[in-house]
Design goal:
There is one protein chain. The protein has 145 residues and is an alpha+beta fold. It has a domain at 5-54 and 97-140: 3-Layer(aba) Sandwich (Rossmann fold), CATH 3.40.50. It contains 5 helices and 4 strands; from the N terminus they run H-E-H-E-H-H-H-E-E. It has helices at 5-11, 31-41, 62-73, 76-88, 103-111; strands at residues 16-22, 42-53, 115-127, 130-141. The protein has a 4-stranded mixed sheet with strand order 1-2-4-3. The chain starts with a helix and ends with a strand.
Amino acid sequence: MLTSIDNCKRNCPEGFDLILCNHVFEHLSKPAEILKIIKDLMNPNGYLYIEVPFDSPFYKNQLENIQYLFNKYFKIKDIIKKYIEMRTTKYSFMHEHINFYTEDAMNYFAKNNCLKPIYIKTRKISSCLGTSKIISCLYTLEGNN
């Protein structure tokens, strides 16, 4: 396993053909800085795959969660208590996210960081907490075919 950027460059000086970032960018305080490092590790004709949860201040799947809780608990006091518990425990992943993405945000992110989008698609997934959305993105470096 490669443990540092220097090791990555030393072990693969021509760059990587594919770099996968699966549920990473929503946790980064400086995603553009990390993306610059990742791009430096890419083969000039390589690909970057990024997957992030779909989330936005303007769209949340909270209504589905509240409806689930309402159907299960019926009392508003219990619903609020359970909702807060879900959002602040190990069963809630969103409390660890400091960045939130939509397809438009991923396109903007790519454009501002010299990436060419090949594929950006949102899909629904189901879990014990309800339905959520995931954005899958595949990029090349700008200027590559």
